[in-house]
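One such given next:
>
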Amino acid sequence: MKGTRATSIAQIRNLLWLMILVAFVGCGRPVGPTSGVVKFDDGTPVTSGSIEFRRSNDKASFASRIASDGTFHPADQNGEVGLPPGAYDVVVVQIVLTEDLAIEHHTHGHTVPRPYADYHTSGLQVEVDEGELDPVEVVINVTDDETRK
């Protein structure tokens, strides 16, 4: 009976170690930044829309909706959140339906200029280094928007 009890305790101890190992290794670290903020060059956040990152080497895309405080959480097509290391082209798309409202009644803040919605004209790029986990910051330049048209 004593040998069976010792075996059971050893099995439980091994099972606990395995569970701890799985908890730390199985979950893994994020593949890269899991959040970010998109704002205008005057510091105000983009308050609506979506953002997409297209990796330069393989065209993999990571996208997110933009929250009212400008934050986003980029995810791949399988819903995995995080930007793996690499160079990315970025677009910010904002659809604002305020054409029937006077400008003083607009509540969406600045409007993202249309060139930022196209990979060929946005000019936005992000580089994620190996091991980088800091939030990504994307800045929309509206002060010299006339030069982008």
Remarks:
- The chain has one helix and seven strands.
- The helical segments are 2-26.
- Residues 21-26, 145-149 have pLDDT under 50 and may be disordered.
